[in-house]
């Protein structure tokens, strides 16, 4: 008996739910691209992007997804044959490394188990052994949506400094910007990139990149630069140069509205707090369900579990698939299957972006209903534990 009719909840780690006001902001005619309101809109978006990244450096908006922003970061700062060190912690830093390889860069992966965060001590040791300073850039993800890990970027920066290594530090914030604090300048990050379709609640298609002084200096000698991604061209005097052609106008209208919601209506710190509370409520529920042994957290260390997604392992692969199918088809909640090394062995609960207590508690209750309905062994009262914890944490 399906109970899915009604508004479906999209609880996946991206793309995320788009607020109605953001969708409505796109429903308008196109405008002229050389003068007028679009020029001012670009300027205001760039100011807010710098604020989100926490940088006084340069910011760029691409008509691209996160993969495009990865390529922008690499092509603007590196030359063919340069070596990059990829700090593995799930699926996405290695994906960025695959992009680097395809561009003619040399790629070395510092391996890490799928259940763990990057180990800063291992980063320090690897860099200390690079006497010839062959490593030109270090690629790391702040939150990896495949493993559900959050890496400690300041600790990784400290490890690089302790080794006295000059490599550029590049950070993927696709699943963390707007969700957890990120301070590009204060943390010594040289290049940061993001896509707007996760914490930033915008339809997929905008890639954001910020460059600090060391990256801008490296740009002067980079030979991988091509016209579309080129920072220098995009810094040119004409508005169309900022997009290397026609701006993705409707995505910009949407993005502007999403920025207003995030930065003005809610406030960035409140959004961080909301994500922390909803993520902890999710973990409280999963911890109870896991007591029966059929489910477990993918990330071993509680302090390394991300606030944007919770990745759950299932001992029986069939359970993950049936659970995801049942939540969607019978109860109207869309979860995500596990990917990367955990493919077929778990599921992912997205809790980032335009998500509130109603959506999250509804999701947890639906998962618990599906666990019971499918006869999957689980500790009783996971959703109740989440409710009790949230009631306590939000009391005035
Ligand atoms: C989703 C995601 C990406 C990929 O973004 P696309 O827009 O699909 O290219 C990159 N990095 C992380 C951490 C992600 O979660």
Automatic annotation (TrEMBL):
<dbReference type="GO" id="GO:0004760">
    <property type="term" value="F:L-serine-pyruvate transaminase activity"/>
</dbReference>
<feature type="modified residue" description="N6-(pyridoxal phosphate)lysine">
    <location>
        <position position="198"/>
    </location>
</feature>
<dbReference type="InterPro" id="IPR000192">
    <property type="entry name" value="Aminotrans_V_dom"/>
</dbReference>
<dbReference type="InterPro" id="IPR015422">
    <property type="entry name" value="PyrdxlP-dep_Trfase_small"/>
</dbReference>
<dbReference type="InterPro" id="IPR024169">
    <property type="entry name" value="SP_NH2Trfase/AEP_transaminase"/>
</dbReference>
<dbReference type="InterPro" id="IPR015421">
    <property type="entry name" value="PyrdxlP-dep_Trfase_major"/>
</dbReference>
<dbReference type="GO" id="GO:0008453">
    <property type="term" value="F:alanine-glyoxylate transaminase activity"/>
</dbReference>
<feature type="domain" description="Aminotransferase class V">
    <location>
        <begin position="42"/>
        <end position="288"/>
    </location>
</feature>
<dbReference type="GO" id="GO:0019265">
    <property type="term" value="P:glycine biosynthetic process, by transamination of glyoxylate"/>
</dbReference>
<keyword id="KW-0032">Aminotransferase</keyword>
<keyword id="KW-0663">Pyridoxal phosphate</keyword>
<protein>
    <submittedName>
        <fullName>Aminotransferase class V-fold PLP-dependent enzyme</fullName>
    </submittedName>
</protein>
<comment type="similarity">
    <text>Belongs to the class-V pyridoxal-phosphate-dependent aminotransferase family.</text>
</comment>
<dbReference type="InterPro" id="IPR015424">
    <property type="entry name" value="PyrdxlP-dep_Trfase"/>
</dbReference>
<dbReference type="Pfam" id="PF00266">
    <property type="entry name" value="Aminotran_5"/>
</dbReference>
<feature type="binding site">
    <location>
        <position position="348"/>
    </location>
    <ligand>
        <name>substrate</name>
    </ligand>
</feature>
<dbReference type="InterPro" id="IPR020578">
    <property type="entry name" value="Aminotrans_V_PyrdxlP_BS"/>
</dbReference>
<keyword id="KW-0808">Transferase</keyword>
């Amino acid at each position: 008996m399906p109970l899915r009719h009604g508004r479906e909840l999209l609880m996946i780690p991206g793309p995320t739910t788009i607020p109605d006001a953001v969708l409505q902001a796109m429903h308008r005619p196109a405008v002229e691209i050389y003068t007028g309101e679009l020029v001012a809109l670009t300027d205001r978006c760039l100011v807010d992007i710098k604020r989100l990244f926490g940088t006084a450096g340069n910011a760029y908006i691409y008509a691209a997804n996160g993969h495009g922003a990865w390529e922008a970061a690499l092509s603007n700062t590196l030359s063919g044959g340069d070596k990059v060190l990829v700090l593995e912690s799930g699926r996405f830093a290695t994906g960025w490394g695959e992009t680097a390889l395809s561009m003619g860069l040399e790629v070395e992966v510092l391996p890490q188990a799928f259940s763990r965060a990057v180990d800063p001590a291992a980063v320090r040791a690897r860099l200390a052994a690079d006497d010839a300073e062959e490593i030109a850039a270090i690629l790391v993800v702040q939150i990896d949506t495949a493993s559900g890990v959050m890496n400690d970027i300041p600790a990784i920066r400290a490890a690089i400094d302790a080794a006295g290594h000059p490599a550029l530090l590049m950070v993927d914030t696709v699943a963390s910007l707007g969700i957890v604090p990120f301070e590009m300048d204060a943390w010594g990050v040289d290049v940061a990139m993001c896509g707007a379709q996760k914490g930033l609640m915008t339809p997929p298609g905008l890639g954001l990149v910020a460059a600090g002084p060391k990256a801008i200096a490296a740009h002067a000698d980079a030979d991988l630069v091509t016209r579309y991604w080129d920072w220098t061209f995009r810094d040119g005097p004409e508005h169309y140069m900022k997009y290397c052609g026609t701006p993705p106008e409707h995505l910009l209208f949407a993005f502007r509205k999403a920025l207003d919601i995030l930065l003005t209506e809610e406030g960035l710190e409140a959004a961080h707090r909301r994500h922390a509370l909803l993520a902890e409520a999710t973990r409280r529920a999963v911890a109870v369900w896991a007591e029966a042994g059929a489910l477990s957290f993918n990330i071993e260390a509680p302090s390394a579990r991300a606030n944007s997604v919770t990745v759950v392992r299932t001992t029986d692969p069939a359970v993950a698939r049936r659970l995801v199918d049942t939540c969607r088809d019978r109860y109207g909640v869309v979860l995500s299957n596990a990917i990367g090394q955990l493919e077929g062995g778990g599921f992912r609960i997205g809790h980032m972006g335009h998500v509130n207590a109603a959506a999250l508690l509804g999701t947890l209750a639906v998962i618990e209903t599906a666990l019971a309905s499918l006869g999957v062994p689980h500790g009783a009262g996971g959703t109740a534990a989440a409710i009790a914890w949230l009631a306590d944490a939000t009391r005035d």
